[in-house]
Amino acid sequence: MRPGPVLVIQTAFLGDVVLTTPLLSRLAARFGPVxxxxxxxxAELLETHPAVRRVIRYDKRGADRGIGGFxxxxxxxxxxxxxxxxxxxxxxxSAALAFSAHIPDRIGFADSPAALLYTERVARPRGGHExxxxxxxxxxxxxxxxxxxxxxxxxxAAAAWLKxxxxxxxxxxxxxxxxxxxxxxxGYAELVARLDRPxxxxxxxxxxxxxATVAAAAPGRAHSAAGALSLRESAAIIERAALLVTNDxxxxxxxxxxxxxxxxxxxxxTPSQGFGPIGRAGSVVQHTGLWCRPCSPHGPASCPLGHHAxxxxxxxxxxxxxxxxxxxxxxAH
Length: 333
Ligand code: SF4
Fold this sequence. Notes:
Low-confidence stretches: none
Number of strands: 12
Strand content: 15-25%
Structural class: alpha/beta
Order of helices and strands: EHHEHEHEHEEHHEHEHEHEHEEHH
Bound molecules: iron/sulfur cluster
Shape: globular
């Protein structure tokens, strides 16, 4: 690649953005900190990362939607005269953006539907964790970890939120939400009622009702933070937690990024699809032997078979046992 700044376009979901951090770290080690085009929602996850020079927000479903927003961003990117762009998100829009911005080297996966717009096509590994598959885009080299760069302000905000509610460590964090309905394990309220430790229920503002219901299972001992904290502040709560119980959703990858043990409840998806916990400090609870799993890459909004047995069939005893068996870590902050 010729000398010059390097760009990464990653406008996928929050978890995908977190799992792109090893790729960003390897590229930064090779070229210096890179610029990243991402969604407004994911921007805060990257803007403090040492591998990132600048975050460029692309509100593809809002202010920048349509051909006008696309053109404006393409022109802005062209002005920077990037030497090359990496495209972990296999979308036509990302590829067209890189092409329209006249970035000479465009590196993406060979199995992308938009591969004809790339100048270098990399074979996407069939197996392994998604973070490692994305890392393959940068060729051979060291394997940096999934990392979130929290600031002292993030940690102070999380600590203040905990202190205001009298929540002492060790506490358990739970994240009962998911964009996809079938990924939500329905047993969180019962789990929270039966835990013997303080609990923080995490989620977005959209998860507020669900989180309030879960927290109400243990009045005074469980507290909902849904919608009250930024993503990095929520990650700072996870960092201080003894462990996180979550579905196959973005908070799982936040826990990976801050080094907190995790119990992950998988329903319509399976860890073999590449999005499970990484390392020894993670365990998975799932309904093995169910012929219909996995039924989609993300998990459908509702069960196509009507019974949702992949989640309904996971009793709270199994998750409690996993919580008990998971080694916890003392919070570093
Ligand atoms: S089809 Fe099977 S895997 Fe998919 S949601 Fe229904 S029970 Fe779960």
